[in-house]
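Memo to structure team: turn this sequence into C-alpha cells by end of day. - J.P.
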Amino acid sequence: MLPSSRHCRSVWIAAAMLLAGCSADLEPAQRSISDIEAVVSVAATDAAKYVPERLADVQSGLGRLQASFDKRDYAAVLAAAPKVMEAAQSLAPAAAARKEEITRRLNQQWTALAASMPDSMSAIQRRIDLLGRQTGRKPTGIDIDAARATLSSAESLWSKAQAAFATGNLPEAVATVTTLDATLGQLARELQVH
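Reply from structure team:
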C-alpha cells in the first residue's frame, strides 16, 4: 500500500523543518566557537606559560566543539559551548594569579640570596688576601690563583644577576644568583672561610 500524498507531504514538511532548525543553529554555533577562540587567543601566551594544563583542557574542549560542528551537530555545540567558554574566560585570571604567585616567590628568593652576596664575596676576598700574604707554610690543596679567578667570575655573575633583576627578569636573576650562591659556597669551603 502506497502512502497517501498527505502523509508524504507531512514527512517532507517535518524534514524541511528539521533542516531549517539545523541551519538556524549553524550561525550561533559558529559564533560560539569563534567567540571562544577569541578569548583563548587573548589569554594563550600567559596561559601557556603559567597554567598550561588548563589551556590544554580548553583547547581540547574547543576541539570537541569543532568536531561536533564539522558533523553538523550544532545543537551539541550550543549545549557544550557555555562550559568551554567559562573555562576559556578563567584562563587569564588563573594565569595572572599564578604569575603573581611565582613573582612573589622569586622576589623572596632574590631578597634572601642577594642580601648575602656582598658579605660572602667580601669574606672570600679577605681570606684570599690573607692566604696570599702568608709567607710560611700555606694550607695544602688551596690554589690562590684559581680562587682569585673563581671570585672574579663570581663578581661577573653577581653583576649579571643584578642587571637581570634591574630589568625585571626575575627568573634569570634568581637562577643566576642561585648559581652564584653555590659557587661561593664551594669556594668558601675550599678556602676554609669561617
